[in-house]
Amino acid sequence: MPAQMTSTAWGQGVKNALTIGTAMLVVWGIITAAVVMIFEQPIFRTIGVSGAAIVLLAQLVFFATWFYGRSVAGPVLLDCGPHPTWWLFLLNAALFVLLGLMNGLDLILKLIEAPEATWTTILFSIGWPVIMTLLVPYWLVMASGRLQMRENGIWQYWGLLRWSKIDSYHFANDATLMIRAKGFLSSRIQGALPVPPEQKQAVEELLAKHCPGAANA
Q1: Is the pLDDT of residue 73 over 60?
Q2: CA distance 140 to 111
Q3: Quick one: CA torsion of 41, 46, 49, 51, rounded to 10 degrees?
Q4: What angle, 0 to 180 degrees and rounded to 10, lies between the N-to-C axes of helices 43-72 and 7-39?
Q5: With pLDDT > 90 as the criterion, what percentage of the chain qualifies?
Q6: Taking burial as the number of CB atoms within 10 A of a residue's CB, which of 70, 110, 120, 196 is the most buried?
Q7: Are strands 166-171 and 176-181 parallel, antiparallel or unpaired?
Q8: Nearest alpha carbon to residue 127 among 55, 61, 60
Q9: CB-based burial, 142-176: b 16+ in 10 Å, e otherwise
Q10: Is residue 160 pLDDT above 60, yes or no?
Q11: Whether the Cβ atoms of residue 164 and residue 174 lie closer than 8 Å to each other
Q12: Which helix (H) or strand (E) element contains residue 115?
């Protein structure tokens, strides 16, 4: 039976989203302010183009990490199924396709009405359509992700966490695997992976084998 979304995973997911979202908004705000001052463009257009730049960079990092992780993860030792909210990710992909088409059509109509638009105006008008379009493949990858115990680490739906990078782990009462990785962000971001109850023991055995000494109460 596939894992169900747990209250522990929801709670930790919200905390992680707030941490990452806050950091992204700060960076977005700094870049937007700098571009407004340099190019003297309306702030709404500037927010779009600076956001598109951030999304593009994030997408490049995400897919580079995703491809590399898949290439070095090794054989599957245990497959724990898809993400409990995979259908929501798929819905997001469809939504962003629609939003991309709507924003693209709006941009085309504006250019038809104002054919004398300069390259600067065009550049600062494509930000929102680009953001919407770039996020479609991201959500498709999220929807297709699976939780797997691999030979070289845990495939966390869309990224590999090597066994050696696990600092500590424990299971919450609702069979949610809580993982803290080694690194700079480990004090703020913690993984919360819902595991099918019938596979909890098998996951524990693999963790004990590959991460001796990392378990905590």
Answers
A1: yes
A2: 31
A3: 170
A4: 130
A5: 39
A6: 196
A7: antiparallel
A8: 55
A9: bbebbbbbbebbbbbbbbbbbbeebebbebbeebb
A10: yes
A11: no
A12: none
User: Residue 142 in contact with residue 158, Cβ under 8 Å?
Assistant: yes
Sequential DSSP letters for 142-173? HHH-EEEEETTEEEEESSEEEGGGEEEEEE-T
Helices H / strands E in the chain, number of each: 6, 7
Residue 166's closest CA among 190, 150, 194, 145? Answer: 190
Is it the case that residue 202 has pLDDT exceeding 70?
yes
| Burial (Cβ within 10 Å: 0-12, 13-18, ≥19) of residue 105 | exposed
Please give the distance of CA 3 from its chain centroid, rounded to a whole number. 20
Helix (H, G, I), strand (E, B) or coil at 65: helix
Residue 201's identity, in one-letter code, is Q
Give the pLDDT of residue 117: 57
Mean pLDDT of 34-45: 72
Burial class of 131 by CB neighbour count within 10 A (0 to 12, 13 to 18, 19+): buried
pLDDT at 56: 82
Q: What is the distance of C-alpha 63 from the center of its chain?
A: 10
